[in-house]
Structure formats: C-alpha cells, structure tokens
Design a protein that fits this description.
4 domains, 15 helices, Ig_E-set, Formate dehydrogenase/DMSO reductase fold, copper ion binding, single chain, cell membrane, alpha+beta, signal, CopC/D, Immunoglobulin-like, about 750 residues, five-stranded antiparallel sheet
C-alpha cells in the first residue's frame, strides 16, 4: 500500500512537471540543487583562465644590440596610417651608420628621408612618413652600436588599412588584446546570441513567453551598449603609449562595420520592444524572420572587424568560414540559453519545437565546429605547434569547450528521445551546455582580437668572413638544416659582388661534437663567379665547421673558417638537449672559475648577422671596469665604469653615459649563466694548447636573449681559447688571448661630456 502511494505521488509529480516545468526545482533532490547552483563556477574559472592567459607578460630584454620594440610593430595592421616608423634598440646607436628606409609593394621608397637618432635617447631612431595609402610596406633598418661597433640590419612589414581591427585588438603575434576590448566583444556576442536564439525558437514553433522576450530584449540591449562603449574605450583607453582622444575623434575613426552593427542593434532592440504590443501578435512569424535576419546581419559585421578580414591571402575564404562559424554558434548557443533559462518554452517533452531545435542543432553544431577548425587552418601556420602562440593556446581551449558542448548536445538529444522520465536530467544538461556555450563565445571574442601567428618561414643562412685587404669570403645555405645541402661560396669585395680571379675552390667539413670528417669537397664554378658544392653531407645535428679555400694566382690560397649550428636555431628552430654531460659540466665550471679570476684579456671577434653583413672588432679588457675596442671600419671607443668615450672621424673624443656600467670579468661570466644541454665535443689545438670543445644553450633572462655557445677550453689552463656563438642576428667567432697580461686603458686626454 505504501509503495502504491509512493508510485501515485511520482506519477502526479510527473504530470505536474509536464504542465509546469518550474516545479522541477520543487521535486529535485537537494544534491541536484547544489550542483545546479554551482554551474556558474566552471564558467568563472574559464573566464579567469582565459584572461590570465591573455594578460601574462612575455617580453624579455636582450643583452646584445637588437630591436627592443617598434612602432608600427612587425606584421601589424594599422587602420590609421602611421606618421613615422620608430625603433628602440637595446644599446645606443651611432647615427652616421644607422638608418631606416620604408618601401611600398612596388619597392619604391616612401619615407621622408629624415632619419634621426633621438639626442635625448640614443637608443631611439625614427623616420617620418607621408600620408600612406592602404597597402603593405617594408621597413629596412640598419643599426651600428656605439657600445661595441656591431652593425646589424633587418626588415619587417606592416600594413595600412585593408581591414580595420576593432579598438583593443592585438596587432601582432604575441601581443595581448586589451581585457576591456575582450569583455565588450564577448558581451556583444552573448547579447546577440540571446536575441538570435529567441527568434530561432519562435520560428521553430516554440510557445514564446513574456519572460523569454524580456531575456532576448536584455541581450540585444546589452549588445548595443557594448558596441557603444567601444567609443569611450577607444578615446580614453588607447593602446600602448598613444595619447587620449576626444569622443568625437574616437567616433570619427570607428570602422564602417561598427556603424552598421550599431544600427542593426538598435533595430533589433526596437523590434523586440514592439513585439510586446498585442496588435502585432498576428504578424509574429514574418517579424520573427525579420528579427533573425537583422541579428544575423549584426553578427556578420563582427567578422568584418577581425583578423580573418585582415588577411591578404585567402581573405574571402577566411571571412566566409568565420561568418559560418559565428552565425551557427550564435543561433545554436542562443537557443540553448533560452531553453535552459526558460523551461516553459518546452513545457511538454513531446514539444515539436524542442524536437525541431534538437534536429537543427545536429546541423548547426558540426557547421560551427568544422567552420571554426577550417578557419583556424587558414589563420594558423602549419609549421608551428598551436601552443606556441597566444592565439593557438586560446584556440585549443575553445576546441576543448566545443567538444564538451558536442557531448552535451548529443546527451540532450538522447534525453529527448527517451521520454518523460528524463526531464530533470535534460534540464541539468541544457544548463551545462549553456554555460559551456557562453565560454565558447568568450573564446571566440578572444580569438577575434588576438593576432594569429605569422608563418614560420625557412630563411637562407648567409655568413660572411672578413679577410685582409677588403676582401670577404661568403657561405650561403638555402636550407640550414641537416641532410645533403647545397653550399654556395664566393669571394667578394665590399659590395658583395663575386670576384672573378678565383680559379679553384674547396670546402672541408668537420663535425665538431663527433669524429665525423667528410672528404674534402671541390666546388663547381657558376656563371656568376660563385662556386657551388652540391649535396654537402651534414649527416647529424650539432655544431659544424666549414673551412673554405679560394685558390688563384697567389702562391697561397685564401682560407676562411665558418662555424654554424644545424639545424639553425634562428631560421629553422632549435633542437635542445635536455641533459648535461657530467664531464662537460665539470669542464664548463673549470672554465667559468678561471674566467672569473682574470685581471685582463684581449679578444678578436668576427661577427656576421646571417644575412651577409659582418664586422671585425678587437677588444681589450681590464678589471674591474675598463674596456677598449676598435673596429675594422675605423670606429674606436673606450669605456670606464658607466662612461663611454667615442672617437669620431676627425679624432675628437666625446663621452656619453652607458646604459650598463662595464664590469670585467663579471659581465662575461653572466653571459653564460644557467647552461643547458652541456655536451663534450672533440679535441682541437688552439694557440699551441690542446682544447676540448664544450657546447651548451643559455636560455633567455632579463639581461639577454637565448644564446647557443661552443667553447674551445684549454685542457691545461682551462682558458676559453675560442668561442662560437649563435643568437638572434649574431653568428660570431671570438678568439681570446693575452690572459692576465699587462694592459693600460685610460680615459682619452681630450674628452667632452
């Protein structure tokens, strides 16, 4: 009798549930209520994680001369043409040998030619620009360091116009979009989704309630307010160090798609308000279709202010894929939000609207997933793992959310098919799907404002070796990696043009970390007086030496020695060793201990930038704070403590404060801290002493970028006799001598400050 009574109560409860779903809470167990109350926590955690991923700082300072930052940034998309190109370097610049040139797509120079090093900040160089039309521009820069005379050069591109990014968007890979811009973009997407879901459910025959209409109206109004808030955000929270603007100025630079979206937002809000009038009830269906079209058009404008629309290649495809992805996810998630928030819309389990939406979701979900994946394939370079960039990390997070939504959508479909007994589980699952859907919209907002990474391009390696009497040896490798690689070598004058007086050329390869010595290779003369060594055998990864001989009429051949690392860590990507060889670690520590006790030292440095430029410099060091150097092109400088003296072409000395005071040998020791992958190599003789080779990697810290080293360490004295180094724009071979020998470095007699 008791069991029959309990069954009767359950049947009555199910009948009441089928008529009035809000009673689900009354009949749900306390445990389910607690879980439903906690549904907000996954979303809050998702929000915190995503914003933390975006805001985390990533920049590291370099210890050598390099570009610290630039305006405009490399690869940036500028809605407003920049008035100047400005570069900030890590060391003071020598103005006479430093330059910036800007070229358009036709290789015509377009800058004003007024390049200048800032007198108040010798690390800052700029050149002004005329009003640039839309297009792609190339910046070619050249810098000469006042500290050590190193001359480096490089190029990067930026774009003007073509597709204005919204305020707060990241313009370059690695840059984080402004959190307030992400929040407004997400609010716009979420508000439009809530409105879109209401129109869709109405068209599918759901019994729309006043509560659901108010929810849709609230969402549309929130989207409108978020779009309007972009104007004061642009005016009062400009990116970087840009000055604030007036509201009128900010409104004047807002892109056309934004203006269209604001108008569409207003139309959607007005239509939702008018539908409260009883006189319009008979015309609901055409008005529902109109509202859905207006909302879809508003969503479409979002694709026109994103990085998909800013592409130069595959731009129509990227826009189409992004539009398909956003439209499908907005209508799908919007419908789920309404079903989860207002269960009266599907009061009966057999509601035709619920079943129709379930079938439609089986179409919208795959479209959203596949279009998003295809768009990511267009934007993300295939040669880089996705977790190596902020864009890729957020994309992986969004993919995980999307998979979770698909699982819940499949579960909900099963609940609808099983009948009345699963209503409580269905409501719970719908709310979980709605929470994940809002997370997916947040990830979509982040991705729309995050710059996708630039493709990792394999660049050729071009090393230059300074010989005597203004002659240079060149080694060129189109693909600096292991395997059988073509080498091109030639002898040139200062302009790089091959000299025709070479009669024979040879290359001798030696693997420096293993006993691998390929036979001597004879080069083949080419029509342009360069010499080709086809399929040179670089059989293993690591440090290699190439000894190049050029024979002509002179009794002795001209010989140049190149040392490089394969695969090249700058142009190809590093191959890091994780463990240290104990014997190499012991020899490294002995060399560091010996270096830290030096009172003086001399060095001869050959530096090339990997792009065919080079400089040769002689250094002298004296403890505790003195340095003197002279370059092959005539530059000379003396540094004592925190003061640097420079001699110009007329022999006049001037003085400037150093960014960092000279510390010898402490500064040299600090170059080599935190070594990784210490490896013991072969034995070679340097300056009459048998040396053992030690290679290692020094990760980036707050004083330097990442560096790869190879040492020749004396087995008796533990002096570092020779060093090869690879870093960004640096391929250097340095020979050390005169250890603890007497040296005098004094301030110049004629100096002005």
């Amino acid at each position: 009798m008791v069991q029959l009574r309990r069954r009767g109560h359950r049947a009555l409860a199910l009948v009441r549930l089928s008529k009035d779903l809000p009673l689900v809470r009354d009949m749900a167990p306390a445990r389910w209520l607690r879980r439903a109350h906690r549904l907000r926590h996954p979303f809050l955690a998702l929000l915190v994680f995503t914003l933390a991923t975006l805001i985390a700082p990533a920049a590291l300072a370099h210890g050598e001369l390099d570009v610290a930052r630039s305006t405009p940034g490399p690869g940036s998309i500028n809605g407003v043409p920049p008035e100047a190109v400005e570069l900030w370097f890590t060391e003071p610049l020598e103005e006479a040998r430093s330059s910036i040139e800007v070229y358009d797509a036709d290789r015509q120079r377009v800058d004003n030619g007024d390049v200048q090093v800032d007198p108040a900040d010798p690390q800052h160089m700029r050149v002004t620009l005329p009003r640039l039309p839309d297009g792609t521009y190339t910046v070619a820069w050249r810098s000469a360091s006042l500290v050590d005379g190193h001359v480096l050069q490089g190029t990067f591109e930026f774009r003007v116009g073509q597709a204005r990014l919204p305020a707060g968007a990241a313009a370059t890979d690695g840059e984080r979009p402004a959190p307030q811009a992400v929040a407004l973009r997400w609010l716009t997407l979420l508000g439009l989704a809530v409105a879109a879901g209401w129109w869709l459910l109405g068209l599918l025959g759901a019994r729309l309630t006043a509560r659901s209409r108010r929810l849709a109206l609230t969402g549309a109004a929130a989207a409108l307010l978020a779009d309007l808030a972009l104007v004061p955000m642009t005016a009062y929270l400009p990116p970087g160090d840009l000055p604030r603007q007036s509201l009128g100025q900010a409104f004047g630079i807002m892109p056309t798609p934004w203006l269209a979206r604001v108008g569409l937002d207003v139309a959607v809000v007005a239509l939702l308000g008018l539908l409260a009038l009883p006189t319009l009830r008979r015309r609901w269906r055409p008005l529902l279709a109109l509202g859905a079209l207006l909302t879809a058009a508003a969503v479409l404008t979002l694709t026109l202010t994103s990085h998909s629309a800013a592409r130069e290649s595959y731009r129509p495809l990227a826009i189409a894929l992004n539009a398909a992805h956003l439209e499908s996810i907005v209508f799908w998630i919007g419908g789920v939000v309404h079903l989860a928030a207002t269960p009266r819309l599907w009061r009966e389990q057999s509601s035709p609207a619920l079943r129709r939406f379930s079938r439609l979701a089986l179409v919208l979900a795959p479209v959203a997933f596949l279009a998003g994946a295809a768009n990511a394939g267009v934007l993300l370079p295939l040669s880089r793992p996705p977790w190596t960039s902020p864009y890729g990390r957020v994309l992986l997070l969004k993919t995980g959310i999307a998979l979770g939504i698909l699982v819940l959508a499949w579960f909900n479909r099963r609940q609808i098919q099983t009948g009345l007994q699963r209503l409580v589980a269905l409501l719970r699952s719908l709310r979980g799907e709605a929470v994940l859907g809002m997370g997916a919209l947040l990830a979509a907002a982040v991705l729309a404002l995050t710059a996708p990474p630039a493709p990792a391009q394999i660049e050729p390696l071009h090393l230059r070796f300074d010989l005597d009497d203004e002659r240079y040896a060149h080694l060129f490798m189109s693909h600096p990696d292991t395997g059988n690689r073509d080498l091109t070598i030639w002898l040139s004058g200062p302009d790089g043009t091959p000299l025709p007086d070479v009669q024979r050329a040879y290359v001798t390869l030696r693997m420096l970390e293993r006993p691998i010595d390929p036979p001597r290779l004879r080069a083949e003369r080419q029509e342009d007086d360069r010499w080709l060594v086809p399929r040179a055998p670089f059989s293993v990864k690591g440090w290699w030496m190439a000894e190049v001989e050029f024979a002509g009429d002179a009794p002795e051949p001209e010989v140049a020695t190149f040392v490089f690392l394969l695969p090249d860590p700058i142009f190809i990507g590093p191959e890091q060793r994780e463990e240290n060889d104990p014997a190499a670690e012991e020899l490294y520590q002995a060399a560091i201990d010996r270096l830290s006790r030096l009172t003086s030292m001399s060095s001869f440095e050959r530096l090339t930038d990997g792009s065919g430029n080079s400089v040769t410099t002689e250094f002298a060091f004296a403890a505790p704070n003195r340095l003197r150097y002279a370059t092959a092109v005539g530059g000379e400088s003396i540094a004592i403590g925190d003061t640097q003296y420079y001699r110009d072409g007329n022999g006049t000395w001037t003085a400037q404060p150093r960014a960092r005071p000279v510390r010898f040998p402490l500064a040299q020791v600090n170059y080599y801290t935190n070594p990784q992958g210490l490896t013991l190599g072969r034995e070679m003789e340097i300056d009459g002493e048998i040396c053992r080779l030690v290679s290692f990697y020094a990760p980036a810290d707050n004083t330097r970028g990442e560096v790869w080293y190879l040492w020749w360490v004396g087995t008796e004295t533990h002096h570092i006799r020779q060093e090869a180094m690879v870093a960004n724009h640096h391929y250097m071979i340095t020979t050390y001598s005169d250890f603890d020998a007497p040296v005098t470095i004094d301030a110049p007699e004629v100096a002005s400050r």
